[in-house]
Structures are given as structure tokens and as C-alpha cells.
Amino acid sequence: MSQIKQTCHLAKISNVAPTPVQMFLNIIEKIKPNPLIMNLATVDKEFDVLNRSVIYRGLTEDNQTHICFVTEKNSRKYRNLKENPKLSLTMICSVPEEFWQIRLFNAEAVELSADVVAKFWQEEPLFAKIRSHICDCGKPNDGKELDRKYQELFGSCQRESKDLEQTESYTAFKIIPKLWDFYKSEPNKIADRVQYKQIEGENGKWEIYHVDA
């Protein structure tokens, strides 16, 4: 029998934070300044379940406990969430020698207040503001006509040195999950997972435990 030369170890998650948000922040700190892409899945009348990518836009300012993202009211994801706010979310973070998957289960999306949405708008780059003015999500377009609208609005902003007003379609949501799942993998190691499950009736308290990957 040939001798087994490889060694086997566990990718143990040892530094478990007391809250899921702190655990999340500890992980994404490693990937800065790169943007964090989140895969958002919603319930859809036509496709049953529909997923797409959104950009992490930070935590709620009031209590720093909920993940936020922006969207347009003319998008399918907005219609999905207004009809059924239930969703699931997956994020991937890859750093040298570590691969992290973060998932939010049994989650609900809540639209943010107008003043919070306005702050997000101010942070948008110019091209994103122009997009909100000229694009109707999911509708067929003529590339030349879309380019004409873009150049016209971009030129106007340059000539008049003005910022674009927030559109009525621009909005943002926060995600409220009842369970966070953190999966850690390393080369040639057995992965580990840690879950934070919200304790019913205990506002802000979480049950923390390891599960098999």
C-alpha cells in the first residue's frame, strides 16, 4: 500500500465575533478597497426564484446592524420585494489562502426612509446618476438613442457645472436576516462554518454555533 503523504487539517474559524455584523466586518476588512458584490435572490411570479448581483453599500446609520443596497423602482427586483419582501443573500470574499462565503437566510428587505436614500444618491458617481435618469430597467433600448441621451445629459452637467437631481425611481433597502452563515475554506483543508441564529423574543441576541461544511 502506498504511503499517504498529504496531511489533512481543518480550516477552523477560531476568531468568532460576538455578533454576526462584527464577524462580517472583520471579513470584508480584508478585501478593501474592492467593492463587495452580493448575490440577491427574490421570489418572482414569472421565474419563481430570480437572482442578480447588487453592490454592498454599507450598514444602516442608525444602529449599524443591517446591510444596505440601492436599486431602481422600475426594476424587477424592486417589484419582487414590494410583492414579497422575503429574500436570501450570498457574498463571496476571497483573500490569499482564505475563501469566505457569507449567506443571509430567512431575510426580509425593508425600504429605507427618504432622507437615507438621499444620502446614498449624493454618494453616487455621475454615470450612475445619469443612468437613473435615462434608463428604464429591463426595457429594450436602441443603443444609439441611449448614447445620445447620455452624451446630452453628460454635456449639460459639464457645461453648467451642476449636479443631477435625485430621480423618483432611485431607492434603497436594508436587509434584516434571522440567520447568518459564515463558511471558511483554505487550500487542502476541510472547511468550517459558523452560524448566528436570532433568538426569538431576544432583540439583538444571537445563538452562535459551528456546523459541518
Radius of gyration: 21 Å
| Main β-sheet description | 9 strands, antiparallel
Helix content: 25-40%
Total beta strands: 11
Low-confidence spans: pLDDT under 50, at least 5 residues?
A: none
State the distance separating the first and last CA atoms. Answer: 30 Å
Strand content: 35-45%
Apparent shape: elongated
Mean pLDDT: 92
Number of helices, counting only DSSP H or I runs of 4 residues or more: 5
Q: Secondary-structure element order, as H and E?
A: EHEEEHEEHHHEEEEE
Supply the helix-strand structural class.
alpha+beta
Please, could you describe this protein's structure?
The strands form 2 sheets. Strands 2, 3, 4, 5, 6, 7, 8, 10 and 11 form a 9-stranded antiparallel sheet that branches. A two-stranded parallel ribbon has the order 1-9. The model has no long low-confidence stretch (mean pLDDT 92). It is 25% helix and 37% strand. The chain has 5 helices and 11 strands. It has helices spanning 20-28, 76-83, 114-123, 126-134, 143-160, and strands at residues 9-10, 37-44, 48-55, 67-72, 86-95, 98-111, 170-176, 179-185, 189-190, 192-198, 206-212. Strand 2 and strand 3 (48-55) form a beta hairpin.
List the helices and strands and how they pair.
Layout: E1 9-10, H1 20-28, E2 37-44, E3 48-55, E4 67-72, H2 76-83, E5 86-95, E6 98-111, H3 114-123, H4 126-134, H5 143-160, E7 170-176, E8 179-185, E9 189-190, E10 192-198, E11 206-212
Parallel strand pairs: 1-9
Antiparallel strand pairs: 2-3, 2-5, 4-7, 5-6, 6-7, 6-8, 8-10, 10-11
